[in-house]
Amino acid sequence: xxxxxxxxxxxxxxxxxxxxxxxxxxxGHRAMYWYKQKAKKPPELMFVYSYEKLSINESVPxxxxxxxxxxxxxxxxxxxxxxxxxxxxxxxxSQLGTSQETQYFGPGTRLLVL
Amino acid sequence: AQSVTQLDSHxxxxxxxxxxxxxNYSSSYSPSLFWYVQHPNKGLQLLLKYTxxxxxxxxxxxxxxxxxxxxxxxxxxxxxxxxxxxxxxxCVVSDPGSARQLTFGSGTQxxxxx
Lengths: 114, 114
Hints:
Chain A is mainly β and 114 residues long.
């Protein structure tokens, strides 16, 4: 099974709201990722967690706050977002310990910031 | 540094005819190469991957790709297109030294005409 699940599927929020995106995998993968994808563009890497530790932060604004509570869960906390943050947010996971890692993606959360 | 060029932003084929989506890459190492497909409002699904084993890689749904080191290409083919193949296709490369950081091509939109 190569399933990554994400909730919610859709989210509408105002610029003063606080919300969270959730991602879950049960494949035993020890790397998890957040990507942002704008329409008609490839995904852009935001954060990487390896063994539940933040290993890569691609200079993402602090209004995005990731959290990895355990090896199966990844959250993205959102606060004071801007309309330009509207996008599809994708989570992915991969196994560690090999040079030939493969990332498996979830279905995404479609976020609209008003 | 690695890079990926998808030579066509749009490809249109008739149902039942062959599909060819072109991808060229640049990498300093022996790369891993992937094709992902994204249907409208969905996440990315792994079609196939090359990781230095056989140069002809078979994937899901009848797709295959051939790794040609001399041409630095990894083109995706399918003998007979189906309406359900209409989607965005991304060619992706990762280097062994930075397996967690994928480099995406700009994507190819495949249209299948009845």
